[in-house]
Design a protein that fits this description.
single chain, 936 residues, 6-stranded mixed sheet, 6 strands, 64% helix
Length: 936
């Protein structure tokens, strides 16, 4: 790295670079008078024994003048490097300066300390601090130097050294206090940061705007946006007017925590009183990318051009990234070519990432070479982009070779490199390799793979919150709950459990394995709960079929003054559909219109259609479909699923014809709905036509789900042996879902021969799935083989398997009433049973003939008993709801024939509309008939 040449009045020898360079381990300060003289030019006066008093006083003055003259050009070079954030060059220039015999003054040393912090070298920082301490009172006692020392340790994340440097200051001004507050905030110690903020004021030091911004930024970056906004309001009450940087702190904090909706809301509020600057634009653009809000991103680009904001490397890099993530690659390339400043590595990295997202690896490597021709060396971020892409593509050998190449070039892969590899391997489904990479990070692998060579002679790379989050996602998908708990312990031991993303993923992990006690426990221990955390808990309860709890928690979240985001609203809408909470769903629809007045995203449109469909309002679902513009294939698929739920099979076929006319390419899911519609109508030949046209006409290769649909259609038609032949000819290995479909068809047709084959395959694939045993035992019961029925039930008991309890939910007003089998704790249970008794009397008097009850054992069940929970829910609806109000019920099991028959009678006898969703079919009972046509 070039350094400033010495002034012409002196001619010191070429400076040895080893005295102060990024690679040295300590600053070497000349410690003796003789050592200083070795650097004097020839002819300079030398000390000869004891100098006269007069000479002793005069010489230090001349030396100081000489050192000042000698230091001046170096100081200018160091200052220029610091302003350009060229930290390594600044440190090397200072090394040359020390070699020339010049010493820093109280103005230069703070810049050197800043360069040490920017370089991220704790050893150099300690050496620079030692140099300041040896400089006497003129340096060590200077408040500017002292403040810079505290700030340097704070920037390095060394809180203990920052506190020690702070404690040694004779006078602590607002700058020193702010630096220490920032040190604690940067490491996530928010309580300590806030306590210091209060202590500063108690000591008589009034916080300035920068102090407030530091504290606000700390809370925002750590995900506690609520506390950051509270401090923001408190700042105003204390008479400190927030500046643009104050708003930027919160926006940046939201973006760093992927709270893009919140960032956008705060940005819009800011624009009402402040004019965004280049930092604001660079901070909010990632939110535009995360929300795919291309229109807003383009408006921000226009704002930059219209207001003459310089398109520097920071704003330019953010624009390139935004356009690239939104798929506008040509726009991104134009921005790259128009950046006004000299392009740095960050900008080139964004261009490389652009080509990688575009799937043009050849162009990415071409940009890599052009960057080097431009005089810039690729950094670890550059290589991490390639590693991540190769891992995502499943090209693990290329990723491993890159690791080795990085080591050969003298660079050391960092934790981001490992995170990129683990995430990429996980996304491609290479779970074993991803776990091996995680073990290598901890030093617990044998390191035989070529990629891990760099770990053999170095300490293990410590996993970060991002690493733990990725590994927990992997273990959640694999349902490896034991390993998940081990990673949870690791996170607790290493202080990573407080990371908001780790905590949220732990809630998700426990929710997916059905351990809601642990999920709720992790959630309760989270100090700074944000929207992401709440979403994890809401989704966990919904996943475990406790949608009524999810809706209750959603209300609690609103009461905690947290604003729901897109994901929150989706979860709430899906929960409304599961519990048939139409009133709640309509309120959410109004909220969506208010928050997205210009039109809401297709994902929300799909959630609304799903909610209306499951709540029985197919007309409202159709209205949402009609008003959604533009419609992607997901919107069309969702409308088809609503029609299927209501057994409007021919409407599905008609909608598919409209889809073809709209020039939208159907996807594999479209054909699953289409084949399911054929199954409902018994259209075997039409289904075969669609199935074989998938690949021939649309280029869609049938998946196992499509083969399962065909098996279902054949099974419903009674072609069970033919379905076995079809399975044998499949190019794919049958899974549990397919064999379960066969088994249910055998139950429908009481086919024990094929049922035993299907059951045998299922018990091998899913030995702990209770429903398989229940269906198989019912096949034996249908054929009168009660000993075999009991044998299957005994096998379940021996394996510790228990039948899930039936449960029905009635939505009434703002409450969801659950009714679980065997639970008679409802406050109105006496009135419910009395109502059912009156109904059975009317049934008997009218000559009602009960249908067969599903066989569970070799005993007769009273068909007039309140046997299943939907009957209890109907009775409660009759006594608690207005006569003209539909009774809406959802349940977790398919309705039996007796319940279906009796509710038809009740709908006619009480002149009530009763809506029941059993997860398989939507039943609308009215005037003694059901919309399903008695086929479900």
């Amino acid at each position: 790295m070039a350094t400033m040449p010495p002034p012409p009045s002196v001619s010191p020898p070429p400076p040895p670079r080893a005295i102060f360079s990024p690679r040295c381990t300590a600053l070497q300060t000349p410690s003796t008078h003789a050592q200083q003289h070795r650097h004097l030019p020839e002819g300079a006066p030398q000390s000869q024994g004891h100098a006269s008093p007069c000479h002793a006083r005069a010489r230090p003055l001349r030396e100081r003048e000489r050192e000042r003259d000698l230091a001046a050009p170096y100081a200018r070079e160091i200052g220029a490097c610091v302003r350009a954030r060229r930290w390594g060059a600044a440190c090397e220039a200072f090394a040359s300066m020390r070699s020339a015999g010049a010493a820093p003054d109280r103005f230069l040393l703070p810049q050197v300390l800043r360069a040490c912090a920017g370089l991220g070298s704790p050893r150099l920082a300690a050496a620079a601090h030692a140099l300041a301490a040896k400089g006497g009172a003129a340096l060590a006692g200077d408040p500017v130097v002292g403040n810079a020392t505290v700030a340097m340790y704070a920037a390095l994340g060394d809180v203990a050294s920052a506190r020690a440097a702070f404690a040694s200051l004779p006078d602590r001004d607002v700058v020193a206090w702010t630096a220490l507050i920032g040190a604690h905030a940067d490491t996530g110690e928010l309580d300590e940061a806030f306590d210091l903020f209060e202590e500063m004021q108690e000591s008589g030091v009034r916080p300035d705007l920068i102090s407030w911004n530091t504290l606000v930024s700390g809370f925002a970056r750590n995900g506690d946006i609520g506390a950051a906004l509270h401090l923001f309001d408190e700042m105003r009450l204390r008479g400190v007017e927030p500046g643009v940087n104050s708003w930027n702190c919160i926006i940046s904090g939201c973006v760093q925590n992927a709270l893009y909706d919140e960032a956008m809301g705060i940005f819009q509020e800011m624009c009402e009183s402040k004019r965004p600057d280049s930092v604001t634009v660079a901070s909010i653009l990632p939110a535009c990318a995360g929300l795919q809000a291309l229109r807003i991103g383009k408006q921000l680009h226009s704002y930059v051009l219209r207001h003459g904001i310089k398109l520097n490397v920071y704003t330019g890099a953010s624009l390139i990234s935004m356009y690239s993530e939104c798929g506008e690659f040509d726009y991104a390339r134009v921005v790259f070519s128009t950046i006004e400043e000299e392009k740095n590595v960050t900008v080139w990295n964004e261009l490389i990432q652009l080509y990688i997202r575009e799937g043009r690896m050849d162009k990415a490597w071409e940009a890599f070479n052009l960057m080097q021709e431009d005089g810039l060396e690729p950094d670890i971020v550059t290589y991490n982009s390639f590693i991540a892409e190769y891992a995502r593509a499943g090209q693990k050998e290329q990723a491993y070779e890159l690791f080795s190449g990085i080591v050969d070039m003298g660079l050391k892969p960092n934790v981001v490199s490992m995170n990129a590899l683990i995430c990429g391997l996980y996304q491609h489904g290479l779970y074993t390799d991803a776990l091996e990479a995680f073990r290598c990070m901890q030093g617990s692998s044998d390191g035989k793979a070529k990629a891990w060579r760099f770990l053999q002679n170095s300490s293990p790379i410590q996993p970060t919150g991002t690493t733990i989050t990725s590994v927990l996602s992997l273990l959640t998908d694999l349902k490896l709950d034991r390993l998940g708990k081990e990673v949870h312990c690791y996170a607790l031991k290493n202080g990573l459990a407080s990371n908001i993303f780790v905590s949220s993923k732990l809630v998700d992990l426990y929710g997916k394995i059905g351990d809601m006690t642990s999920a709720a426990d992790v959630f309760q221990k989270i100090g700074n709960k944000n929207v992401v955390t709440w979403n994890s808990l809401l989704a966990a309860y919904k996943h475990n079929k406790k949608a009524e709890v999810a809706l209750k928690l959603f209300s609690e979240m609103l009461e905690s003054n947290l604003h729901p985001n897109l994901v929150t609203v989706q979860i709430a809408l899906l929960s409304c559909g599961m519990t048939m909470a139409l009133g709640y769903g309509r309120e959410l629809h109004s909220y969506i219109r208010k928050c997205w007045p210009g039109g809401y995203p297709a994902t929300l449109a799909c959630a609304l259609m799903d909610m209306y469909g499951k709540c029985g309002n197919i007309e409202d679902a159709r209205l949402v479909f009609e008003y959604t513009v533009p419609k992607d294939v997901t919107v069309w698929n969702t409308m088809m699923s609503c029609y299927l739920l209501h057994r409007m099979s021919m409407d599905v076929v008609d909608l598919f014809d409209c889809l073809e006319q709209s020039n939208i390419q159907p996807d594999p899911i479209t054909f699953i709905f289409l084949l399911s519609a054929c199954k409902q109508e018994g259209l075997l030949e039409e289904a075969q036509g669609y199935f074989y046209n998938m690949e021939d006409v649309y280029g869609i290769k049938p998946t196992l789900k499509h083969y399962t649909c065909m098996v279902d259609i054949m099974g419903s038609a009674g072609l069970l042996k033919e379905s076995l032949t079809f399975i044998q000819k499949m190019p794919l290995e049958p899974d549990a879902c397919l064999w379960s479909t066969v088994l249910k068809a055998c139950k429908l047709h009481s086919n024990l021969e094929v049922g035993e084959k299907a059951a045998k395959a299922l018990f091998e694939l899913e030995p702990n799935n209770t429903s398989n045993y229940m269906v198989f035992s019912n096949i034996y019961a249908d054929t009168g083989l009660w000993d075999s029925t009991e044998a299957v039930r005994d096998a379940m008991t021996e394996q510790g398997l228990h039948v899930e309890r039936q449960c029905s939910w009635l939505y009434h007003g703002t409450a969801v009433h659950p009714f679980e089998a065997g639970d008679l704790s409802h406050p109105a249970i006496d009135a419910i049973l009395s109502t059912w008794k009156d109904l059975t009397t009317r049934m008997e008097q009218s000559g009602y003939s009960p249908r067969d009850i599903e066989p569970y054992c070799n005993v007769e069940a009273d068909p007039f008993s309140c046997h299943h929970t939907e009957k209890i829910a109907v009775c409660y609806g009759l006594i608690s709801m207005n006569d003209n109000e539909p009774i809406r019920i959802s349940k977790n099991f398919r309705m039996c024939m007796e319940c279906h028959s009796s509710i038809k009678f009740i709908s006619r006898d009480k002149n009530r509309q009763i809506l029941v969703s059993d997860g398989r079919t939507y039943h609308r009972f009215k005037d003694g008939t059901c919309s399903c046509g008695d086929a479900w």
